[in-house]
Structures are given as C-alpha cells and as structure tokens.
Specification:
Belongs to the ABC-4 integral membrane protein family. LolC/E subfamily. InterPro entries: ABC3_permease_C, Lipoprotein-release_system, LolCE_TM, MacB_PCD. This protein has 420 residues and is α+β, with helices and mostly antiparallel strands. It has helices at 5-15, 22-64, 79-87, 121-126, 128-131, 139-147, 157-163, 203-206, 214-220, 244-251, 260-263, 265-303, 305-313, 318-349, 351-362, 369-372, 383-409, 413-417; strands at 67-71, 92-106, 111-119, 134-137, 152-156, 170-175, 180-181, 184-185, 188-198, 209-213, 229-234, 255-259.
C-alpha cells in the first residue's frame, strides 16, 4: 500500500543518519533551520508591517477624520447649516467644524512650530483619541477655564516637553496673519494657559498639535463667524468614497470634499509597495532552504544507492522508493514550517516585551518613536496571511523533494551494484 509502515520506517532510518553519514545529517539540519527561520521571519515581518499600517491609519484617521469639507472661496460662513445637513447623511457618525492654522508656540524655555485646531468643547469631548489620552490635567479644567473667560489649551505631550511647560503654565502663540496697519501686517500674539497635555502615541502629532476653543480660534486667526473646514467621520472608513457624493450635495456649492484616501494616497501606497517587496525578498529565504533540501536528498540518494538497489531486487517498487524519499524531504519541510509558525506567533504575541528586553540588554533605542512615529512596536497577524505563508512553505518543501525522489526511483539496481 502507498505510504505503508515499511516506507515510513525506512524514511525514519534515513533521517537518523549514522556517524559516517554525519554530513548528510548536517545538511538536513541546516535545511530545517532555514525553513523554520524563513517561515518565522515572514510571519513576524508581515505582522509588523500590518500592525504599523493599521496603527498609522487608526491614529491618522482618528485625528484627521475620514473626510474634510472645505470652502472653495477660503471662507465658510454658513458652516453651521452645512454641518447640520451633513449630519443628516446616512452613515455619517460625527461632524466637526474647526479652525486650523500654523503658529509659533513659545515659552521662557523654548519655542517650536505648532498646528492649532479650534473646535467646540463638546466636539473635543467626543474626540476619543484626545479625550481618552490626556496625560496631565483634564477636560474639566479646560471647560472651567473657558467658562471663566480665560483661554485654555490642550497641548501635545512632546510639544509641552520641548517648550518646558506643564499644566497651569502660560504659552504664547504667534500667528503670521494679524492686523493690517499702514506699516504692513503685524503678527497676532496672545498668551494662553495650558489646561492639559495629551499623548496619542504618534510622535508627529504629540509634538505639533494644540487644541483650543472654536470661538477663541476664530478670533485668533481672524475668521469671525467662519471656519477652515468641516471634518466628517463615517461608519465605514474603507468605503469612504461611497459617502462623498451625498456629503458634497449636503455641503452645497461652496463646499469641496476630500477623503482620507486622496489626502494620504502617496503615503499609504508607499507602505503597500514596501510591504509587497518585503514579502518577495523574504520569500527567498524559503527558496534557499528548499534548495538545501534538494542538495541533501541528492547526497542521500547517492549514498544509499546500494541500499536502494538491494531493496528493488527484493521486490520494492519504484513508487515505494520514491515515496520513501518524499517522506524524508517532506518531513524536514513540515517540521521546519510548523516550528517556524510557532516561533513566529509567539514572537508576535510578545514583540513589545522582546523589544524592551533588547533595549535593556543592549542599551540601543530600538524603534525610535521620533523616526517611526509610533511609541510602541505594533504587530497584527492576519489569519489568511499566516495560512498563506505556511502553505507556501509546505508547497516549496514538497516540490523540492520531487526530483531527487524521482531520481532515486529511476536508479538501476544492476548499475548500483556493479562495483559493490
């Protein structure tokens, strides 16, 4: 019978090489290590790439919204009416009118460029990525200061650190567009009180964003009764283009709609290309390991030539000999694949702990947030992708055994025993 106990027994004997066949055993071990490392590396790298993309999309969309409605004239006087109409669109979950502008933030200890966003306190409270990640201070302090007629700010934690300020300190904001005088335009300068600091885990935003009340932002940027744009959040961000026509119609003729896929197209396309190229490059590790299986089986077939001839003369069929060597090669591939699968999954589940341990042991700053935008190393395994890696490894391993096994089955017993 195909794949009988005899064939499995013989394949097991060939896998356990004797001392004089140690070199063949070393090649088999190297093939096993190659397959294991290839599968583990593919799973880990693809999980990190997926996690990196998912975290970036979550933070970018969480802070910037899924669509932005802007006025084609630069002014949006009827923003409240447009916002009310957009809220009526099916699938829209949040609409936020805002004023946005670039400023120079300064304190006694430093200065830095920043991006100010003005929005109502109610919208800021519903802005979960900010309201749930306040590091110092609170939204209650922010509301109380606004109610008292003062000028509160929420500042990114890295920006506050760069300025050397904390809750209760004063920051001066300078905007280039100020009052017009006979001598030209004077900058707009005003001091504000820090009501809290936030940390969303993306260094680019933590080091540059400032939030203030909508009315105060309108006054500071000289946009009375107007906003820079209306931010829109929808139920299904991946299908954002399906919402664009209805939102454009609700915004009216003055509104121009941009979705997140348009705004960040270059960035996310670059991430996708990098992910695909990385997958192709790392697949070469599996190909090299598969070539090791081929070379090891060829050497085993050559070494076992007399044994094959004797077995053939005793009645073993060509198919039986071919299956024996298929089992030998496939065993290396299967064991290496599942060992790599286990290592890859365990590594991904504990990747941040491993990163912290390596930082502690080496002293090197691995995955610097200032460079990679995220404060933690993300890893997100996709079931379909992991299954694809495992299946690809098994197919390559099996394919690598076919030709050496066929050569073993075609071995002529007379020629093999001629000089024995």
């Amino acid at each position: 019978m195909p794949f009988s106990a005899f064939e499995w027994f013989l394949a097991g004997r060939y896998l356990r090489a004797r001392r004089k066949e140690g070199f063949i055993s070393v090649i088999a071990f190297i093939s096993f290590i190659g397959i294991m490392l290839g599968v583990a590396t593919l799973i880990i790298v693809m999980a990190v790439m997926n996690g990196f993309r998912s975290e970036l999309i979550g933070r970018i969309l969480g802070l910037n919204g899924h669509m932005m409605v802007q006025s084609v004239t630069g002014q949006f006087p009827d923003y409240e009416g447009a916002a009310a109409r957009i809220r009526e669109v099916d699938g829209v979950v949040r609409v936020t009118p805002l004023v946005e502008g670039q400023v120079m933030a300064s304190s006694r200890r430093g200065a830095s460029g920043a991006l100010v966003r003005g929005m109502s306190t109610a919208n800021l409270s519903a802005f979960e990525i900010i309201s749930e990640n306040i590091q110092a201070g609170s939204l209650d302090t922010y509301r109380n200061l606004e109610a008292d007629g003062q000028s509160p700010l929420l500042v990114g934690s890295r920006l506050a650190e760069a300025l050397g300020v904390g809750v209760g300190d004063t920051v001066t904001l300078l905007a280039p567009r100020g009052a017009s005088t006979p001598f030209g335009t004077t900058p707009r300068v005003k001091a504000y009180i820090i009501a809290g600091t936030f940390q969303i885990g993306m260094s680019e935003y933590d080091s540059s964003f400032i939030f203030m009340p909508l009315g105060e932002a309108q006054a500071f940027f000289r946009q009375p009764n107007s906003v820079s744009g209306i931010e829109v959040m929808v139920e299904r961000p991946d299908d954002v283009k399906a919402y664009v026509p209805a939102v454009r119609e609700a915004a009216g003729d003055i509104g121009s709609v941009y979705d997140w896929q348009q705004i960040n197209a270059t960035f996310f396309n670059a991430l996708q290309i990098e992910r695909n190229v990385m997958f192709l490059i790392l697949t070469l590790i599996l190909l090299v390991a598969a070539l090791n299986i081929i070379s090891g089986l060829f050497m085993l077939v050559k070494d076992k030539g007399p044994d094959i001839a004797i077995l053939r003369s005793m009645g073993a069929t060509r198919g039986s000999m071919m299956r024996v060597f298929l089992i030998v090669g496939a065993s290396i591939g299967v064991l290496g694949t599942f060992a790599g699968f286990i290592i890859g999954v365990l590594f991904c589940e504990n990747i941040e702990t491993i990163r912290q341990a390596l930082i502690f042991l080496t002293g090197a700053n691995l995955f610097d947030p200032a460079i990679y935008f995220l404060s933690e190393l993300p890893a997100e395994m996709e079931t379909g992708e992991v299954i694809s890696v495992v299946l690809m490894s098994l197919v390559l391993s099996l394919a690598a055994t076919i030709y050496p096994s066929w050569r073993a089955a075609r071995l002529d017993p007379v020629e093999a025993l001629r000089y024995e």
